[in-house]
Amino acid sequence: MENKKWYLMGLREGLPIGLGYFAVGFTLGIAAREAGITAFQMGLMSFLMHASAGQFAVITVIAGQSGYVAMILTQLVINIRYLLMSAALSQKINHDTSMPKRLLLSYFVTDEIFGISASVKGELNPFYNYGAATLASPGWIIGTVLGVLVGNILPPSLVSALSVALYGMFLAVVIPASHESKAVAVVVIASMAASLVFDLIPLLSGISGGTKIIILTIVIAAAAAIIRPVKEEAASAETAEGGKEAQ
Amino acid sequence: MNFDQNTYIYFIVAALTIYAIRALPLTLIQKEITNTFVRSFLYYVPYVTLAVMAFPAIVTATSSLISGVVAFVVAVVVAWIDGNLFKVAVASCVAVYVTELIIM
Could you say which of A76, A106, A114 has the minimum Cβ distance to residue B17? Predict the structure, then answer.
């Protein structure tokens, strides 16, 4: 019963993710078609990976005939941020969570599903993530496949509007948290400023998006952990009131 | 381009690499971490990651820089007032659509 409640809650939050994935996937599909990939290959890749930059890199590596080692290294660099997200989730779920549940949860560690999990107060039930994935995953797969198949059928104005949906969701996680905690607010502002600097400075802007995320995450989160360590009581109090705050 | 049967081996190699990254911490770390630094580090990780991914990407995601800036401001304001993920996402999409109707 508890699981069902969490699953339905995840479904609700998964809807905007699915719509955002559809739009982003659509644009990725258009780019992939130009590289020569088929709709079936695109759909299979989306189902297996659920990773936008990662999938684009797959196409690049195959097109360049760069070999399997290059594929592994490229994917490690682009996707290593999931290692940190997965580690953070490992502390957010119940420690008795079974292995099959953990393995399924791992399959859907995407930026956005992780993002909404981070917005859950207190302990996280994996069924929340399963619910979100139920709508997010098809949105991603269908979006990428249709992008390959029908290319420019969506009006550009709509694609442009939908393209901010996912970023809006990220902000919907970090802004309210900044409202509640001054330390988080400082971390968020510093992160955005650093991110902007990385994009603007010519020497740094050559660094891929995935690498930028991992460098800034490690540096800023470590600095924050040293300057403002999270107190033990605060963390446990958060867990205690998690049930009712999670709506 | 060469998208032959090797393509599928490349897919499997990439998929396994990505899944390993996602699954290793969640399956190997089964206990509560007691080290204050590591706990605090993991506490801040999502906020840094999401903030870095959102900005300035949201500003450059749309067809015009102006609509991107509007999307960012609207998302921040709505998130500050309400914080509901769906509302923030929809509000920023509508803001882009309307802005682009006006300026283009």
Answer: A76
Domain that holds residue A238: 2-245
Nearest chain A Cα distance for residue B25, angstroms: 5
Check residue B56 and give left, alpha or beta (phi > 0: left; psi -120 to 50: alpha). Answer: alpha
- pTM for the predicted model, two decimal places: 0.76
Distance from CA of A85 to the nearest CA of B (A): 7
d(CA A93, CA A103): 13
What domain count does chain A have? 1
Q: A-chain residues within 8 Å CB-CB of B1?
A: 35-36, 62-63
pLDDT at residue number B3: 61
Pick from A57, A53, A28: which is nearest to A43 by CA? A28
| Tally of CB atoms within 10 A around B92 | 34
The SS3 call for residue A38 is: coil
Reported ipTM: the value is: 0.86
